[in-house]
Amino acid sequence: MDRGPYLNLATPNSIVIKWRTTTNCDSKVFYGPIPSSLNNVVHDPLPVKDHEVVITGLQPYTKYYYAIASNNQTLTVPSFSMYFYTMPPYGSNGNYKFWVVGDAGTGSVNQTRVKNGFLKHTNHQHIDGWIWLGDNAYDGGFDSEYQSNVFQHNLYGDVMRRIVVWPAPGNHDYNHNLPFSPSPAYFNIFTLPTLGQAGGLPSGTEAYYSYNYGNIHFISLDSYDQGRGPGDPMAQWLQNDLAANTQPWVIAYWHHPPYTKGSHNSDNSNFLDGELVDMRQNILPILENHGVDLVLCGHSHCYERSKLIDGHYGYSNSLQPSMIKNPTGGNYPQNCPYQKHTIPNKAHKGAVYAVVGCSGKLSGTSSGWPHPVMHYATNTIFGSMLIEVNKNRLDAKFIDSTGAIVDRFTIVKNAGGKSTYSICPGQTLTLTPSWAESVNWFPAGVNQPSLVVSPPLPTFYYAYDNLGCIKDTFVVNFLPPAQCTTTALNDPEIKGRFYVYPTPIQSRQFFIEYLPEFEIKNLQITNILGKTLPFILRKETENKLMVEFPNGVSNGIYNVIILFSDGKKSSSKVIVQN
Ligand SMILES: [Fe+2]
Fold first, then answer.
1. What is the CATH number of domain 486-576?
2. Domain 417-478: which CATH class?
3. What is the pTM (predicted TM-score) of this model?
4. How many whole angstroms from 225 Cα to the centroid of ligand 1?
5. For the chain, how big is the Rg over CA atoms in Å?
6. Which residue spans of the chain are classified as CATH 3.60.21.10?
7. What residues pack around ion ligand 1 (CB closer than 5 A)?
8. What does the alpha-carbon distance between residue 331 and residue 313 come to, in Å, rounded to a whole number?
9. 510 Cα to the center of ligand 1, angstroms
10. How far is ligand 1, taken at its centre, from the CA of residue 197, in Å?
């Protein structure tokens, strides 16, 4: 075996496994729940050197061990380090981790050290996806250079066996479009979603694409070889893709940074650094209109990380104070996180722009370093980025070759606010805060993720994070005594508190309207077998909700079950007939 195996294009139910052999032979992948029991097999008898096997019919967010074979010969030994994960269902929350490298494929010892630093920092925990920001194999992105600077096991080959790579192309992956160059090896090496297979709108090209990982919408763009104008196909697709997106987090990445004063200068003219200017002027407005949270680039061989900014599409001397949504570093928990309130409108609430072009190379700086949008910048530290997304919290950390955190920031969405509940005296209620970690409760005086209360009188409760940056207020009132009789309490299901419309639905969306005096504590949708379905929920008005099923929901009858904050349950049916 010459190359691999490596992983591409995971979806909730499938994955692509690729490898290369010296001679033409068939392709076999064995897989199963434990290394000693790889009882499933996919076999392609066609003799090839570049093997590509698609495994389908898999369970979402499930770990599978695997081994590959050709000519009845095992090419990899089953082990606990040979595995892949499928994607979680679209829209689902989790504690997801992503690794970001840029300008990495030098084949140098620094590339290996950055990898080792990252693996040490994450303590070999599972990484959900691996983002490559372009210039993935120096100097020209030729297949032989990918072989020597990427696929070697001491470089990235060992990790590519278990982490799915989601790359973007850089100028070096195109060999600078030198005349008579072969077509870029990038497109043969990677299998990327052109048809929206992993969520997102079909792009029809591997040059740019999008995918959904749980509650995150990722977008990979080609800032070198595609038209970057507002009327070009890439911008048009991006506009439509973002308009169709329902995931709360949006992370976009490409090679040429809109803001940099590193080895490239985003204030340079179109002749010198035109890609940077084009992406800033034409692509950023589309992203910011649709609430982008984080933009990642490479190209400058340094690390630069902005404050929370919005609407800065000109040269650096045109930066206005109003474009800086939050001037701090957002480096929680030393300081308060960046907070974004995206309900009812997510546009122009600020994004962080990071250049991570130092995973294999370091270079000099340009005049004006650091760029004025930056909170932190260094051109002397090799490193990569860890992004963690847990529900409405995103943490990003710049990790150096020793595994230490050099810079970090946190974005928290729609945290803090007031909720009102009505219960009967003696009933208990679980209060859940609007963010995930380290919650201090007042007046209970405890630090714990949630609080069960049964107050003797109507009571206010407060939840604070450790720094007092985020505060939730919970108002617990008592229901009128007539609603708290034994009969009422024992009635498991109560009719007529809400209705759904339209039904049957011929799209994926429907609405719920409920009596305004009640609060919804929990909403569940099940199929007729009682299996819970994922869905997207948006509050339209005080007592109206919009519910959206995921793509591919089957026709049928579904139960909408609502638990109100007084402990009463009510249900209704909705029919999907597409
Ligand atoms: Fe580059």
1. 2.60.40.10
2. mainly beta
3. 0.83
4. 12
5. 26
6. 91-193+263-413
7. 135, 170-171, 299
8. 25
9. 46
10. 29
